[in-house]
Write a structure and sequence with these properties.
heterodimer; A: 113 residues; mainly beta; 4-stranded antiparallel β-sheet; 0% helix; B: 115 residues; 10 strands; globular
Chain lengths: 113, 115
């Protein structure tokens, strides 16, 4: 099974500042035949289902503000909120859909400092 | 507008059974893999199972193999999860998701396994 390790478990960032979350997979999620990383980032606010923000590691879902971005390839990935807004308080998960069993990172709780 | 609506959750005793349903609308259901993901109270997300567009491929997390069955009815735009031999550790909100990457999610249905 591919283990997804997210860090940190939580972080507190001032409004307007940058928040960065790391995600490391225990094996590559890059499919070489199409050069795509099967890695997504999800936001979950309290009492709500998760929402896909980023897919293929770096492609922003339609309608997602451009302050959200993803980068990385292979086994190391980064999710960034460039300028934290109050409405961004949530838990963020990375998720590999490269191979079954599909797996999620443990989540990172983002709060306002 | 893509909509996924889960139903069928509830309180069940250990060893019991439950069948979850997910009604899909707003997209061509038969063109997408479908997924079940669960979230235990206060915990993270756990992928449970997914099923190919035509239903001919199904995959499960080890902890539910032999107890849960994922299925779909493309004529009814519906996804199902038959759960048997339920355990306390199956207690969770169960979400259905569209696609292997779950780009859309329903609101979830709560399954509580307790005596």
């Amino acid at each position: 099974d591919i283990v997804m390790t997210q860090s940190p478990d939580s972080l507190a960032v001032s409004l307007g500042e940058r928040a960065t979350i790391n995600c490391k997979s225990s094996q590559s999620v890059l499919y070489r035949s199409n050069n795509k990383n099967y890695l997504g980032w999800y936001q979950q606010k309290p009492g709500q289902p998760p929402k896909l923000l980023i897919y293929w590691a770096s492609t922003r879902e339609s309608g997602v503000p451009d302050r959200f971005s993803g980068s990385g390839s292979g086994t190391d990935f980064t999710f960034t909120i460039s300028s934290l807004q109050a409405e961004d308080v949530a838990v963020y998960y990375c998720h590999q859909y490269y191979t079954t069993p599909l797996t999620f990172g443990g989540g990172t709780k983002v709060e306002i400092k | 507008e893509v909509q996924l609506v889960e139903s069928g959750g509830g309180l069940v005793q250990p060893g019991g059974s439950l069948r979850l349903s997910c009604a899909a609308s707003g997209f061509t259901f038969s063109s997408f893999w479908m997924t079940w993901v669960r979230q235990a109270p206060g915990k993270g997300l756990e992928w449970v199972a997914n099923i190919k567009e035509d239903g001919n491929e199904r995959y499960y997390v080890d902890s539910v193999k032999g107890r849960f069955t994922i299925s779909r009815d493309n004529a009814k735009n519906s996804l199902y999860l038959q759960m048997k031999s339920l355990r306390a550790e199956d207690t969770a909100v169960y979400y259905c998701g569209r696609g292997r990457d779950s780009d859309y999610w329903g609101q979830g249905t709560l399954v509580t396994v307790s005596s």
